[in-house]
Amino acid sequence: MTKLVRNAAGREVVTEINGQKAIPFQGVGAYKPEGIKHAPHISSCSDYPADGNKQVDSIREALLKAGIRDGMTISTHHHFRNGDLVANMVFDAIKKLGVKGIRWFPSASFPCHEHLIQYLEDGTIHHIEGSMNGPLGKYVSEGNMHGMAVLRSHGGRYQAVQDGEVEIDIAVIGAPAADPFGNANGLEGDSACGLLGFALADSQYADKVIVVTDNMVPFPCIPWQIQGNNVDLTVEVEKIGIPERIVSGTTRITKSPDRLLLAELTARFCDYAGIIKEGFSFQSGAGGTSLAVGEFFKSVMKEKGIRARFARGGSNKYLVSMLEEGLVDYILDGQTFDLDGVRSMRDNPRHVWTSPFTSYNYHGKGNFAPLVDVAILGATEVDVNFNANVVTHSDGYLLHGIGGWQNCLFSKTVILPLPLVRDRVPVIIDEVTTLCGPGELIDVIVTERGIAVNPLRKDLIDAVKDSGLPLKSIHELKDEAEKICGKPEKNDTGEKVIAAIKWVDGTVIDIVRKVKVQE
Amino acid sequence: MTKLVRNAAGREVVTEINGQKAIPFQGVGAYKPEGIKHAPHISSCSDYPADGNKQVDSIREALLKAGIRDGMTISTHHHFRNGDLVANMVFDAIKKLGVKGIRWFPSASFPCHEHLIQYLEDGTIHHIEGSMNGPLGKYVSEGNMHGMAVLRSHGGRYQAVQDGEVEIDIAVIGAPAADPFGNANGLEGDSACGLLGFALADSQYADKVIVVTDNMVPFPCIPWQIQGNNVDLTVEVEKIGIPERIVSGTTRITKSPDRLLLAELTARFCDYAGIIKEGFSFQSGAGGTSLAVGEFFKSVMKEKGIRARFARGGSNKYLVSMLEEGLVDYILDGQTFDLDGVRSMRDNPRHVWTSPFTSYNYHGKGNFAPLVDVAILGATEVDVNFNANVVTHSDGYLLHGIGGWQNCLFSKTVILPLPLVRDRVPVIIDEVTTLCGPGELIDVIVTERGIAVNPLRKDLIDAVKDSGLPLKSIHELKDEAEKICGKPEKNDTGEKVIAAIKWVDGTVIDIVRKVKVQE
Question: What residue ranges define each of the domains in chain A, with the CATH number in brackets?
Answer without folding.
Answer: 33-246 (3.40.1080.10), 257-491 (3.40.1080.10)
